């Protein structure tokens, strides 16, 4: 996989458009998906401990629920700094809506940062495979969480979270597949889209939203 650089970060509409143009040339099937999706905007979150905490917050939650919980969490004094986070009481964190499991995961991340076993600046300099491997060494961080962090916090251009259910449904519909692809199948489908897989993921999420919201289609 290619390594992210200052000209490849998916942190602007222009950067995403360049990647989508390249995708359309690689796979003409995507031209219709791109046309229907319309403008695909970046969805960036600041990197580091706070960014990872926000990704963990959103695990297995609707967008609306995650947004509400995160608003309460980030309002807690010290919650966004790994060192001060470790001083917070679990009861304060649970009152924001964070589950006990997610609190344990964020505490483990904070401990790793404090012990210098996790350096988010270093993570951004790694290839996607290396970064995912490094992040998933930490308990509570699975491939989906690592890949979402790389996409939305690091702006990595070549990550595709194949375990995401919405992506599986959107790709099945957009490519006219007979059935929703599983993780391994979707990984294979996305391979030819490298090094633009993150743009493809953003595209299909947008496509999924258009189908759901504008046409009332439930996939």
Automatic annotation (TrEMBL):
It comes from the Bacteria. One of its GO terms (cellular component) is protein-DNA complex. It comes from Devosia pacifica. Signal peptide: none annotated. This is DNA-3-methyladenine glycosylase II. InterPro entries: Alkylbase_DNA_Glycosylase/TA (IPR051912), DNA_glycosylase (IPR011257), HhH-GPD_domain (IPR003265). The keyword DNA damage applies. GO terms for molecular function: alkylated DNA binding; DNA-3-methyladenine glycosylase activity; DNA-7-methylguanine glycosylase activity. It catalyses: Hydrolysis of alkylated DNA, releasing 3-methyladenine, 3-methylguanine, 7-methylguanine and 7-methyladenine. Keywords: DNA damage, DNA repair, Glycosidase, Hydrolase. Residues 57-209 form the HhH-GPD domain. The lineage of its organism: Bacteria, Pseudomonadati, Pseudomonadota, Alphaproteobacteria, Hyphomicrobiales. PANTHER family: DNA-3-METHYLADENINE GLYCOSYLASE, DNA-3-METHYLADENINE GLYCOSYLASE 2. It is an enzyme of class 3 (hydrolase). SUPFAM superfamilies: DNA-glycosylase. GO terms for biological process: base-excision repair, AP site formation; DNA alkylation repair. Gene3D superfamilies: 1.10.1670.40, Hypothetical protein, domain 2 (1.10.340.30). Its EC number is 3.2.2.21.
């Amino acid at each position: 996989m290619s390594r992210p650089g200052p000209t490849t970060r998916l942190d602007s509409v222009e950067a995403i458009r360049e990647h989508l143009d390249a995708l359309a040339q690689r796979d003409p099937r995507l031209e219709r998906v791109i046309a229907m999706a319309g403008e695909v905007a970046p969805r960036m979150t600041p990197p580091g401990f706070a960014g990872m905490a926000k990704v963990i917050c959103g695990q297995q939650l609707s967008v609306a629920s995650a947004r509400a919980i995160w608003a309460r969490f980030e309002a807690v004094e010290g919650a966004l700094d790994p060192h001060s986070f470790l001083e917070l009481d679990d009861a304060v964190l649970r009152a924001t809506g964070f589950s006990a499991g997610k609190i344990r995961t964020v505490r483990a991340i904070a401990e790793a940062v404090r012990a210098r076993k996790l350096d988010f600046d270093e993570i951004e300099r790694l290839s996607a495979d290396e970064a995912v491997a490094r992040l998933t060494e930490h308990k509570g961080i699975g491939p989906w969480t690592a890949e979402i962090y790389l996409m939305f916090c690091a702006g990595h251009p070549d990550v595709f979270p194949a375990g995401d259910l919405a992506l599986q449904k959107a790709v099945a519909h957009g490519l006219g597949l007979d059935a929703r692809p599983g993780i391994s199948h979707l990984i294979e489908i996305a391979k030819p889209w490298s090094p633009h897989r993150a743009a493809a993921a953003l595209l299909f999420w947008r496509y999924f939203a258009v189908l759901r919201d504008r046409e009332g289609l439930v996939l």
